[in-house]
Amino acid sequence: MVNKTLRVDFHTHIIPEDFPDLAAKYGDARFPVLEKTCDCGAEIFIQGKSFRKITDQAWDVEKRIADMDQEGIDIQVLSPIPVTLAYWSSPEAGLELAQLQNDFIASIAKEYLDRFIGLGTVPLQNVDMAIQEMDRAKHELGLKGLQIGSNVNGLNLDDPSLEPFFAAAEKWNVPLFVHPWATLGGERMPRHKFMYMIGMPSETALAAGSIIMSGLLDKYPNLKICFAHGGGSLPYLLPRMDKGWEVWPEIRKTEKPPSYYAKKLYYDSLVYDPVNLRYMIDRFGAEQIIAGSDYPFLLREVPSGKVVDALPSISEEEARLIHGQNALKFLGLHEMAVSK
After folding, report:
1. Where are the alpha helices (DSSP H) in the chain?
2. Where are the domains of the chain?
3. Residue range 273-280: average pLDDT?
4. Left (φ > 0), alpha (ψ -120 to 50) or beta: where does 95 sit?
5. Tens of pLDDT along 108-153?
6. Planar angle of CA 216, 232, 54, nearest 5 degrees
7. How far apart are CA 298 and CA 195, in angstroms?
8. CA 176 to CA 121: how far, in whole Å?
9. Which of 172, 176, 232, 326 falls 20 to 30 Å from 289 in CA-CA distance?
10. Can you tell me the distance from the alpha carbon of 61 to that of 174, in angstroms, rounded to the nearest whole number?
11. Could you give the CA distance from residue 145 to residue 142 in angstroms, rounded to a whole number?
């Protein structure tokens, strides 16, 4: 009998159907507003302008499960839609927004234990509040990690003000999923949907590069961080980063070159092309790559892990790791990883 490969989609987003109108509550149109257009969909508005259209897959759990069954996905890892991070808001409003989403995601994960795993969010614009909500998310709600944005109001993730947050994440063994948001160069990307196609991968590379170059991974060696979209452009920039580290000793904050630390991070597999995935495996190792689709959005891979299945040179063990086992181990679900 051939054992079935467990398939975990690590990168999926969800939003409550009754998402509150914080723009009206706080008198600030920058908050995302969810307006239903029909039973099957809605539109997210920011400052009165359409930000994106979404289908009911973004909140309808039964429809989500039906899609998973059709596509052969055993488990989804749920995280908020990044635009709801709202780090620019007041800490109090940011905490309210984080808590309502954490409560929502935790309720689904508890009701459907075999199908969903929850990631929470925190108001990183206030590190003390972020740590308090991380504590609640993990120890009270049972969420298995956090999604954080790639920058905090223009501060890269290596900003000293954020270090206590990373210290607490290591102390409590809270895995972090870094998703691009508020991308760099946004003013130069109004056309061609470049924000999604170029801005997000570039933003992710900057976030990963900031962590790699900062010395955080020397100081907090057990910190677990995964970057969306295959790390963006990071895999292809690493040789240049290594060269810079070599020729400019004055910038060095790490004991070893950047490529050494890049292999300690995790990356989802959302790169679409088997050639790119092969490059990632060769550069980072199969054990650092986690299948993820970006469900339920238009740029998602259907099904999650399609690029893994399309890679002819991948071994059965590498595929097994990427499809599911790496996700469970990253999230600290070792018993589930063994049983599955």
Report:
1. 22-26, 61-71, 91-111, 127-139, 163-171, 194, 200-214, 216-219, 234-247, 258-262, 274-284, 306-309, 316-320, 326-330, 334-339
2. 8-339
3. 97
4. alpha
5. 999 999 999 999 999 999 999 999 999 999 999 999 999 999 999 9
6. 115
7. 14
8. 10
9. 172
10. 25
11. 9
Answer yes or no: CATH 3.20.20.140 is held by domain 8-339: yes
Q: What is the pLDDT of residue 1?
A: 34
Nearest to 186 by CA among 27, 51, 15: 51
Nearest alpha-carbon partner for 157 in 214, 79, 233, 93: 214
Kindly give the pairing relationship between strand 41-46 and strand 8-14.
unpaired
pLDDT at 339 over 80: no
For residue 340, pLDDT over 60 is answered with no
* 337 residue type, one letter: A
More confident residue, 334 or 318: 318
Tokens of 321: 């790791």
